[in-house]
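tool=predict chain=A
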Amino acid sequence: MSDYRKLRNSELDRLNVADFKAANKTPIIVVLDDIRSLNNVGSVFRTSDAFRIEKIYLCGITATPPHKDIQKTALGATDSVDWEYRENCAELIEQLSQEGINSYAIEQTENATMLNDFAPEKTPMAVVFGNEVKGVQQKVIDQCAGVIEIPQIGTKHSLNISVSTGVVLWDLFQKLSLKA
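tool=predict ok
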């Protein structure tokens, strides 16, 4: 007999949407620029809900809720996580900068800071995830305060956008929770 009994959903102490909206948020903003896959968008909503992220910006060709393919993977997180659509990601990053929010592209570039070495100093902060094929646009990278790279040692050096979001948000959530 195992010491580990799987918990029922009723035992998980989940917040309802109203309580989620009222709760303190992790001071991270997620920016999705030109994400093609609606399933990826839904997954990012679900991950953002899990870490109680402040807000998601959907930019460029990124689809917006309500859409059945987003809903299928978001499992209701489009109702809990605040979001907004912006046509131009570079203009959004400039606006956030003017509001005192540093944005960091999640990308592979020269002089990028490896995620394990990144120490968030100023919050709130924004993290920018780019197109599944082309990544974060150079003009958006140029607007950011810095670039964070997820260390990878395999042959592909490429993670799905939803996986990248999960890795980055977990890491930053952990680092910010330890600072509190």
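Residues 58 and 64 are 7 Å apart (CA to CA). Strands lie at 26-33, 53-59, 83-86, 102-106, 113-114, 125-129, 146-149.
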